[in-house]
User: What shape does this take?
Amino acid sequence: MSIQLRDPVHNFLTLYDDEVKLMDTWAIQRLRGIHQLALAKLVYPGSVHTRFDHSLGVAHVAGLMATELGLGEDDVRLVRIAGIVHDIGHGPFSHVSEHALEVYADRSSLKPEQKQEKIHELISARIIETDKEIVRILGQAKCGNIVKLLGEGHGQPALKSIVSGPLDADKQDYLLRDSLFCGVPYGVFDIHQMHRSLTLHGPDDEKQLMIKPDGIHAVEQYIMAKYYLTTNVYRHRVRLITDQMIVRAIQLGIEKDQIERLASLYRFDNSARFVDEYCSWDDGRFMQEFCINSADTRCKRLLSRLLRRKLLKRVFDARLTDFKADVADILPQLTKVKRELRARIEAAIAEELSTLVGRSVDPDQVIVNIFNIRSVRETSRNDSAPILVARRSQDPEPFEEASSLFASIDARYSDEFVEVYAPVDWDTDAEKSRIRRVAREMILKLIEQFSEEKGAGV
Assistant: This one.
């Protein structure tokens, strides 16, 4: 049995046998309610696509790659199913939930070999291995193989690269899909030409995914697309602000409002009970529960601003290089390690902003955000492996050295930024310029002052 679906990115998608049944499970259908780009729709109105759409696209692209490489039918089916389930562990608002899961998970419940794993990936594995519908459709053995493939790898190394690597089907689909739905050309590349550029290299039992020497230009286009989409969409000012507002709302709801239901959503404890409850949440239920139907809480106040598009304003932005070296070393730690120092800085900024704008500014809604944009050359690498060019008579060569374009780019050129968002308003460009000008000098001094204190080690 097979069915065909219309897809705005890839035209027709064909799903076969178990894939059709898998698509209709609740664990996969839930992804229809989780937006691919969280609240990017507040700046790109068309970006209402979901993790469900994307998962089907990844399965399609994975199948195209495996077929182009001449892999057997069993391997083609394996990577396609892995594509369908690869995002199954995402929580409300996609990647935004990952931060809360990392912060609030019960790590005492983790096995030693799980300590270094990302929590949302552990959740994905638990769902695939324990969901009754999925296990009934695929069988326990295949579920185990899928989990291995998405984790340390299973079978040929090339299979892992198709579902998780620098050229994987996940990245290929989200670049094209996000570009289309955001209405921007930044992430467009020739996917079919890139697939023709792929090859398998190495001993029969250790085939690795590489690119042909004449495929370098096709991969250059793909990497540039990834870089431009990151700088123009994923790091767009409004996208950064809305993500941080959700993260802060979750933090306030758990730590100050003490909303137990919210805490239990992110307190992963490796149990079947947690997984069952987690799979009942999506973006809509999250907003309904903690904003629309909620009593007045700090969490609700921030979520209500998102609901009404009353976003925090960016009152400060600077590069890390604008700060003294010792301060610049501390700042990247504020979001995870030095959370108390970050809270003190935010409270001090709120107090100064209150004087500046002539009204009280809530310190809970002042957010210091630190992020980076990797250089285009670094973008060509994956966390675990570089892209390699297969050479017939010599060892494989790293893509960034084989490409004349990328070899000329300084790998060290990357930007790290510090921004501050706050609940202030301005009616004119002149007022905006005045507030930002005064706030910049004030915030620079406050950050340096607090970071240089003996208490910076807290």
In short: The two ends are 60 Å apart (CA to CA). The chain has two domains: 2-236, 312-374+414-458.
